[in-house]
């Protein structure tokens, strides 16, 4: 290769080129039986480098959530506010440390149902029966399993919650409106090539109090794309 040709190649591409060239030279020197084995490993090596991607990126995801607001008789999934979640997560790696900020738009129906009702009512439920809020989590974590094409990650941190129109609750027959809240959050996610599945659990600090700040617990299941 000329100096100009070398400069046009990415370092990974040059590594692939020279490795493949060396292996082909070995193939000529060995018997056909051993050559097939060497070619197989050469193809595996080349494919793994061609399809390798940077671990850092962005996840666009959407799914459903089940949320409880200061309701002693409610239970997550089976009897809670079954809404939707859509948003972005950033995945930024500093060696093995994962930094995972995000911004998620969440909806909270005022009527409590089983979480599967969220799938049925996506086009039929009037907008007026929803409350809306933006969740902004910042989490730190790491890859628990990293096989290149498959990753299992875990992270934990804190989040802030903001609702421009407010989240309406009615304790003791008095309607209260909450605009801001926050708490702690945990995430477990799977990345398979460019497909993702995430499970988020969020909780405010403290216990539910009639005259206290907004209390909520939420479980979100989302699927998305990694790019």
Would you mind describing this structure in some detail?
21% of the residues lie in helices and 51% in strands. The chain is built from 4 helices and 8 strands; from the N terminus they run H-H-H-E-E-E-H-E-E-E-E-E. It is of the alpha+beta class and 227 residues long. Strand 6 and strand 7 form a beta hairpin. It folds into 2 domains: 3-50; 57-226, Porin (Beta Barrel). An 8-stranded antiparallel β-barrel has the order 1-2-3-4-5-6-7-8.
Please render the helix and strand layout as text:
Blueprint: H1 3-8, H2 11-29, H3 32-50, E1 57-69, E2 81-94, E3 97-109, H4 117-120, E4 130-146, E5 150-169, E6 176-192, E7 195-204, E8 216-226
Antiparallel strand pairs: 1-2, 1-8, 2-3, 3-4, 4-5, 5-6, 6-7, 7-8
| Count of domains | 2
Q: What would you call the shape?
A: globular
Question: Strand count, sense and closure of the main sheet?
Answer: 8 strands, antiparallel, barrel
Distance linking N and C termini? 33 Å
Rg on CA atoms, Å: 25 Å
Assign the CATH class of the largest domain: Mainly Beta
The total count of strands amounts to 8
Name the poorly predicted regions. Answer: 1-9, 30-35, 44-52
Helix content: 10-25%
User: How would you classify the helix and strand content by structural class?
Assistant: alpha+beta
Mean pLDDT: 78
The share of residues in extended strands comes to over 45%
| CATH fold assignment of the largest domain | Porin
CATH architecture assignment of the largest domain = Beta Barrel
Question: How large is the count of helical segments?
Answer: 4
């Amino acid at each position: 290769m000329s100096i100009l040709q070398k400069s046009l190649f990415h370092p990974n591409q040059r590594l692939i080129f020279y490795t493949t060239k060396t292996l082909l030279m070995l193939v000529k020197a060995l018997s056909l039986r051993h050559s097939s084995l060497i070619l197989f490993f050469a193809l595996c090596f080349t494919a793994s480098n061609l399809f390798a991607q940077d671990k850092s990126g962005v996840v666009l995801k959407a799914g459903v959530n089940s949320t409880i607001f200061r309701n002693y008789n409610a239970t997550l999934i089976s009897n809670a506010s079954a809404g939707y979640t859509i948003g972005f997560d950033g995945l930024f790696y500093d060696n093995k440390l994962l930094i995972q900020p995000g911004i998620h738009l969440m909806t909270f129906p005022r009527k409590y149902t089983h979480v599967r009702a969220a799938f049925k009512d996506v086009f039929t439920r009037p907008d007026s029966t929803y409350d809306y809020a933006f969740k902004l989590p910042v989490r730190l974590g790491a890859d628990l399993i990293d096989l290149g094409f498959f990753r299992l990650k875990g992270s934990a941190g804190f989040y802030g919650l903001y609702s421009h129109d407010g989240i309406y609750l009615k304790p003791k027959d008095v309607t209260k409106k909450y605009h801001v809240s926050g708490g702690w959050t945990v995430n477990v996610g799977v990345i398979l090539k460019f497909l993702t599945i995430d499970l988020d659990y969020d909780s405010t600090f403290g216990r539910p109090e009639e005259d206290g700040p907004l209390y909520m617990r939420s479980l979100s299941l989302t699927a998305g794309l990694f790019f």
